[in-house]
Amino acid sequence: MTYENLDAKLINALLGNGRASLRSLGEELDVSVTTVSNHLRDLESEGVVRGYTPIIDYDAIGYDVTAIVQLKVEGSALPEITERLREQKQMISVYEVTGDYDIIAIGKFTDTDGMNRQIKELLTDADIRESNTSVVLNAVSENEQFDLDVRE
């Protein structure tokens, strides 16, 4: 096998099974264990592969309220507010965005009371000019990743 597209194929194999051994990855990709190890080390050091983690079904463990919080903030306070949101354990995603709002944060909560408390605490910040919160009724697709295109 040529090493062309090996990194993309390795990433796709890991997406299929993040716990695969170097040996099984080598067999699947028809390369040596050393080659897999070297490419994987390079992908990790470049930050392409940032870690290996389980995918948790938060609904199954009681975090069945998902909130999407949109915030308008004073421009100079943007880094401070995004960092504060990032540090809140129940905020699973925080984005700086273009459009009507400056920040979109997605949080998982056990109930609407907990969600309400956390959002109200956040809104005490004078640098937040406006907010809009939506509660997700049905998660059609969540935590999805996609295989990379591999040109043969």
The total count of strands amounts to 4
Low-pLDDT runs = none
**Succession of helices and strands:** HHHEHEEHE
* CATH uppermost class of the largest domain: Alpha Beta
Helix content: 25-40%
Task: Please state the average pLDDT score.
Answer: 93
Strand content: 15-25%
CATH architecture of the largest domain: 2-Layer Sandwich
* CATH fold field value of the largest domain: Alpha-Beta Plaits
Q: What is the end-to-end distance?
A: 11 Å
Strand order of the largest sheet: 2-3-1-4
Helix count, per DSSP?
Answer: 5
Class by SSE composition: alpha+beta
Globally, the shape reads: elongated
What composes the largest sheet?
4 strands, antiparallel
Rg:
20 Å
Which assembly state applies to the chains in this document? single chain
Q: What's the domain count?
A: 2
State the CATH superfamily name of the largest domain.
Lrp/AsnC effector binding domain/regulation of amino acid metabolism (RAM) domain
What's this model, at a glance?
The chain has 152 residues and is α+β, with helices and mostly antiparallel strands. It is built from five helices and four strands.
Output the keywords:
4-stranded antiparallel sheet; Alpha-Beta Plaits; 2 domains; 152 residues; Arc Repressor Mutant, subunit A; alpha+beta; 4 strands
SSE topology sketch:
Layout: H1 6-16, H2 22-29, H3 33-45, E1 65-73, H4 78-87, E2 91-96, E3 103-109, H5 112-122, E4 128-135
Characterise the protein shown here:
This protein has 152 residues and is of the alpha+beta class. The chain has 2 domains: 6-45, Arc Repressor Mutant, subunit A; 58-135, Alpha-Beta Plaits (2-Layer Sandwich), CATH 3.30.70. 35% of the residues lie in helices and 20% in strands. The protein has helices at residues 6-16, 22-29, 33-45, 78-87, 112-122; strands spanning 65-73, 91-96, 103-109, 128-135. Strands 2-3-1-4 form a 4-stranded antiparallel sheet. Strand 2 (91-96) and strand 3 (103-109) form a beta hairpin. It starts with 5 loop residues before the first helix and ends in a 17-residue tail after the last strand.
